[in-house]
Amino acid sequence: MATTTNYGWTTPDDTALVKDGASAIRTLGSSVDTTTKNLNPETTLGDISFRSSSANVKTRLGIGSTGNVLTVAAGVPSWAAPAGGGMTLLSTTTLTGASTTISGISQDYINLQLVITGVTASANFVTLIKINNQTTLSSYGTVESNAGTVTTNNSNNGMIEIGGASAGLSSDADNVACYLFYNYTSSTNYKVFTGTYGITKSAGGNLSGMSGGAFRSNTAMTSFVLAPSSGTFSTGTALLYGVK
Amino acid sequence: MIRIHNTQTDKVIDREMTDAEFAEHEATQAKFAAAKAEAEAKAQAKAELLERLGITADEAKLLLA
């Protein structure tokens, strides 16, 4: 029997009988099918493949997690979290409704940075951050400059408030807040955070502040629930970064 | 309505609140409404006291320093 040059598929010899043609075509087709599958082992959106130790057989590599990078381990490609340095954008979430939850947070980083911008609501409000949807475990202190007057506040409300009682009106969209949560995967220690925020107030004066506190829980942080203290979100964006 | 964004799958689900979630939402908003009312009442009382005394907030600070 003759075979093809590259994949060794069996083909009829020049002297083969015509009556054996159907069988020969079936054998060739089956070989082509097997080879094609071996060269295309991907099964799911985002899969890639690479050469295995066997000729003409590729190995499937399933899509990695958000923020993963392609690396090499034990001589073959694999997906992994970045080894160190820099920030990785994990998600961009549009705020809406009575609350917006950012869940399934990757546990592959050292710190988390949450940036919240352009938040407005259907009523005058402050933005609340509930870590792991907890309403009793966050406490913090703030220093605020509100239209030139500096005040200090402390809160044991259990949730993080951005801007406190001095926040702007429901439509004051020119606002930004940035919070850094340290060692957020720890299951043995409390987690601490620092934050800064600023709001341009349409009623006059600007608000800027700094906040620092703790999430008094030994459970790893896996989600944030953002909610307005009154009404529902109209606009707003939350960017979550993993920090190495 | 609430939104849940799973960062692992990047899937976004918008759905109505469950009864428990709605109760928690109401409690949270009531808590902050009460805190806001208390702060406003305190500020109002302070302003009225200053007016009765006929001094400014800065002058009151000076007295207490």
3D structure, described in words:
The complex is a heterodimer of chains A (244) and B (65). Chain A has 244 residues and is mainly beta. Helix content of chain A is 8%, strand content 48%. Chain A has one helix spanning 21-39; strands spanning 2-3, 10-11, 48-51, 58-61, 69-73, 76-80, 87-94, 99-103, 111-121, 127-131, 138-146, 149-158, 160-162, 175-181, 191-200, 206-215, 224-228, 233-243. In chain A, the strands form 5 sheets. An 8-stranded antiparallel sheet of chain A has the order 7-18-9-14-15-16-11-12, with no helix packed on it. A 4-stranded antiparallel sheet of chain A has the order 8-17-10-13, with no helix packed on it. A two-stranded antiparallel ribbon of chain A has the order 1-2. In chain A, a hairpin with a 2-residue loop joins strand 11 and strand 12 (149-158). The longest helix of chain A has 19 residues, at 21-39. Chain A is elongated and about 100 Å long. The mean pLDDT of chain A is 91. By secondary structure, chain B is of the alpha+beta class. Helices cover 66% and strands 15% of the residues of chain B. Chain B has helices at residues 19-53, 57-64, and strands spanning 2-6, 11-15. Chain B has a two-stranded antiparallel ribbon. In chain B, strand 1 (2-6) and strand 2 (11-15) form a beta hairpin. Chain B is elongated and about 60 Å long. The interface between A and B is medium-sized, with 29 and 23 residues. Strand 8 of chain A pairs parallel with strand 1 of chain B, so a sheet runs across the interface.
Give, in spatial order, the strands making up the sheet with the most strands of chain B.
Answer: 1-2
Radius of gyration of chain A: 29 Å
Parts with pLDDT < 50 across at least 5 consecutive residues of chain B: none
The largest interface is: A-B, 29 and 23 residues
Q: Tell me what portion of residues of chain A adopts beta-strand conformation.
A: over 45%
Structural class of chain A: mainly beta
Secondary-structure map:
The complex is a heterodimer of chains A (244) and B (65).
Chain A: E1 2-3, E2 10-11, H1 21-39, E3 48-51, E4 58-61, E5 69-73, E6 76-80, E7 87-94, E8 99-103, E9 111-121, E10 127-131, E11 138-146, E12 149-158, E13 160-162, E14 175-181, E15 191-200, E16 206-215, E17 224-228, E18 233-243
Antiparallel strand pairs in A: 1-2, 3-4, 5-6, 7-18, 8-17, 9-14, 9-18, 10-13, 10-17, 11-12, 11-16, 14-15, 15-16
Chain B: E1 2-6, E2 11-15, H1 19-53, H2 57-64
Antiparallel strand pairs in B: 1-2
